[in-house]
From TrEMBL:
Biased composition (Polar residues): 1-27
Subcellular locations according to the entry: Membrane
Top-rank lineage group of the source organism: Eukaryota
Topological relation to the membrane, as annotated: Multi-pass membrane protein
SUPFAM superfamilies hit by this protein: MFS general substrate transporter
Database matches in PROSITE patterns: MFS (PS50850)
Region (Disordered): 1-29
Protein's name in the database: Major facilitator superfamily (MFS) profile domain-containing protein
Annotated ranges, domain Major facilitator superfamily (MFS) profile: 49-470
Alphabetically ordered keywords of this record: Glycoprotein, Membrane, Transmembrane, Transmembrane helix, Transport
GO cellular component, one term: membrane
Length: 503
């Protein structure tokens, strides 16, 4: 993920991580002034973009998982379907969601995130509203397929969009704030459902109001996003002319040694996608190696936004209260993610932090099936969710930073969306036949996380070995050869010997 100079030593890396003492005004150097300007620029972008994009992703999570809340109120029986039909519909949601993710990400790269994000969002909001009026198994499956199709490109397009505003080691904590809304969506969904499900006496079922309210809010914020979002850092309306220039130049410098592009007035590359981007993505061993691990790690995070209310019902909480009791575990999930992501950026490490989150999740799963009391199991679920949301955003940050070519990066992030296949596995595991204790699904989920833990450890050592090989080859090259390696296009972006993979 990082581009490090060949002469960098361990002591240099430690000095980068540590926080230097703030100098007095008379001691200011050009480097200190640049750091101050960068921090000020990041703060403006944080205020103008991050809250809105995070809010949009919140509704992405709400509209994906609200069928679980609705099911606690008899959703499937009211529409003439069976409880197992919900598992099938949730699984099939991930079919369109996963298969169309690279395609949708490519469309977003071509037409621009500023347009594609609102279009996707408005579309799935309309389908969510329509979900309030469906009847039968077929309509249930159709609406979930459509929501999956429209939501498919939202996450990779948003990540690629953010990566055009933030440099590589400013990105992970922002991704955590963004992705954390997926955990917060679970908490927020439970809170909304708890309130909406107290509506009685109206012309509709209370779960119908849930779909209508959340779908209408999604459509509203899609319109807001289309008005608010700039095309790129060069046209960011919330920045001064000098700040826009700085925002564009620092992104160019972040990858200038490895990629070469012509840029438009918005600061975005004019040549959006090349045939070589598709070829290099297909040949990228890093992507395919980590994808299997991401699928395994995503099993619990894909399942619990939908099925946690039903798991809590199995602990003895009544249907409406079960929705409210989902709030603390999901809040724990967001807090855990923020802590791990902040530390990941600060220490410039991805692999060990991902493994740390997986370890917390494994501990939570073991406690969930071994602690006898319902209160103890509830606490164990809070521990479990504190770790399961860490791997996905840090994996995205890891792949993003290790893919300096923007066109290829958008495709890599889209293909990595196949990690959501873990949601299909989770939907099949947490079936009503395993209620109320769900021991078999918990055992299986533990196995997936253990495999992911061992795999990510191996993956980190693979990257370290690749860096060692590159350094050995560079040691035998002259300065002229090294400079030629940096600037020619014989090897593509991260494959250049001068590019060192972040660990």
């Amino acid at each position: 993920m990082a581009m490090v100079a060949i002469t960098t030593t361990a002591t240099d890396e430690e000095s980068q991580v540590s926080q230097p003492k703030t100098p007095s005004p008379t001691e200011m150097t050009p480097i200190h002034n640049a750091e101050i300007k960068n921090r000020a620029l990041n703060r403006k972008i944080d205020v103008a973009l991050l809250p809105l994009l995070s809010l949009l992703y919140l509704f992405n999570g709400l509209d994906r998982g609200n069928v679980g809340n609705a099911e606690t109120q008899g959703f499937t029986s009211d529409i003439g379907a069976q409880p197992d039909d919900l598992n099938e519909a949730v699984s099939l949601f991930f079919v369109t969601f996963v298969v169309l993710q690279p395609v949708s990400a490519a469309v977003g790269r071509c037409i621009g995130a500023r347009h594609w994000i609102p279009i996707m969002m408005f579309s799935w909001g309309l389908v969510t509203i329509g979900q309030a009026y469906i009847k039968g198994r077929g309509a249930l499956i159709a609406t979930r397929l459509l929501i999956g199709a429209f939501e498919a490109g939202f996450y990779p397009t948003s990540i690629a969009y953010l990566s055009s505003f933030y440099t590589r080691f400013d990105l992970a904590i922002r991704l955590a704030v963004f992705y954390g809304q997926y955990a917060i969506a679970g908490a927020f969904s439970g809170s909304i459902a708890y309130g909406v499900f107290h509506i009685h006496g109206g012309p509709l079922k209370n779960w119908q109001y849930l779909f209508i309210i959340e779908g209408a809010l999604t459509c509203f914020f899609a319109i807001v996003a289309w008005i608010w979002l700039p095309s790129g850092p060069g046209t960011a309306w919330f920045l001064s002319p000098d700040e826009r220039l700085l925002a564009v130049e620092r992104m160019k410098q972040d990858s200038a040694a490895f990629v070469k592009h012509d840029y438009g007035e918005d600061g975005m590359e004019m040549d959006r996608l090349h045939k070589r981007d598709f070829i290099e993505t297909a040949k990228d061993w890093k992507l395919w190696s980590v994808l299997v691990l991401n699928i395994c790690a995503s099993v619990p995070s894909g399942a619990f936004p939908v099925f946690l209310p039903l798991v809590l019902q199995g602990l003895g909480y009544e249907s409406i209260l079960a929705n409210l009791m989902t709030v603390p575990p999901f809040v724990c999930g967001a807090i855990g993610l923020y802590i791990f992501a902040f530390s990941s950026d600060r220490r410039r490490d991805r692999g060990y932090h991902i493994m740390g989150g997986l370890l917390v999740g494994i501990i939570g799963l073991v406690l969930t099936v071994t602690v006898p009391s319902s209160t103890g199991k509830y606490i164990a679920l809070c521990i479990l969710l504190s770790g399961i949301y860490v791997s996905a955003p840090l994996t995205m940050a890891w792949l993003s930073g290790n893919t300096p070519e923007p066109g290829k990066r958008s495709l890599v992030l889209g293909v990595n969306g196949f990690g959501n296949l873990g949601g299909i596995i989770g939907a099949q595991l947490y079936r009503p036949s395993f209620a109320p204790d769900y021991h078999v699904p918990f055992y299986a989920t533990t196995g997936f996380l253990v495999v992911a833990f061992v795999g990510y450890l191996s993956y980190r050592f693979m990257l370290a070995a690749a860096n060692k090989r590159k350094q050995a080859l560079l040691a035998m090259m002259t300065e002229v050869d090294v400079e030629n390696e940096r600037l020619n296009d014989q090897r593509y972006a991260d494959k250049k010997l001068t590019f060192m993979y972040g660990l």
